[in-house]
């Protein structure tokens, strides 16, 4: 999914200087952002209070939206570089097309993982015949310097490992959790998991003390380490935890996001992650001139134009607040 804001601003990300090295409970509220002509998403990362969680650098939560009489998601072709996109659905379907020739319908609790590497473009749309409701999350993972120029690729994994406990079913989206490993390609120590809790569940989820974590609430009423987390909000948890208490007041859906704190300094502008002003300027020229990012074939409509660069220099920065 694209960042569709027409007046994009650079986001300073990365660097370990502001990683919280001990457990905290920092509740993050979303920023409401228009997606296309009629859609709206709740943006949790980057946030005024928190730029990254491990290598996770962008989190949008959308829906559930009733699109029975609407076209649903319609995101025209747009570019990415230096990151991975993770498409995750609870309801509905999304048709993915990209410049490598991939064409794939992504359904609930199936992983759509696109590694942009040096350059890719893609589109996302609800199929013409689609389910009534659309509900999901779109997330980005920053690629470390040693892998950010890799060849672009798309992965679809319909069969993902599941970790269970009484009242909990955890589907592993990316990385490792409690001895299970996702088939999705990861380039940093990371974890992403979908947590389905049944009403009355009271469990403790094992964590890696060296990772930092956050929990996104997708639906229902749940307490995370004693803190009520409502749908569309996210609780940042810091590092230093060996387990995470979870309690559900109703059936609830959460996403656990974590990883080793990302040590590099980044520039995130529009749909690109780079390390310098020159990289971002070149990416914009290449996209507007129709080179490098390839062509998305089969989408009915023109690609998105890139926003203008800001008048101030872009500088790579750390995990500033």
TrEMBL record:
Cofactor binding remark: Binds 1 Fe cation per subunit.
Pfam entry (one): Pirin
Keyword Metal-binding appears in the UniProt entry: yes
Domain (Pirin N-terminal) ranges: 43-141
InterPro entries: Pirin, Pirin_C_dom, Pirin_N_dom, RmlC-like_jellyroll, RmlC_Cupin_sf
Residue ranges, compositional bias (Pro residues): 302-314
Swiss-Prot/TrEMBL cofactor(s): Fe cation
Region listing for Disordered, in residue ranges: 294-321
Annotated residues for binding of Fe cation: 78, 80, 122, 124
Molecular function via GO: metal ion binding
Keywords: Iron, Metal-binding
Domain annotation Pirin C-terminal: ranges: 193-292
The keyword Metal-binding is assigned to this record: yes
Family: Belongs to the pirin family.
Name under which the protein is recorded: Pirin
Organism this protein belongs to: Streptomyces griseomycini
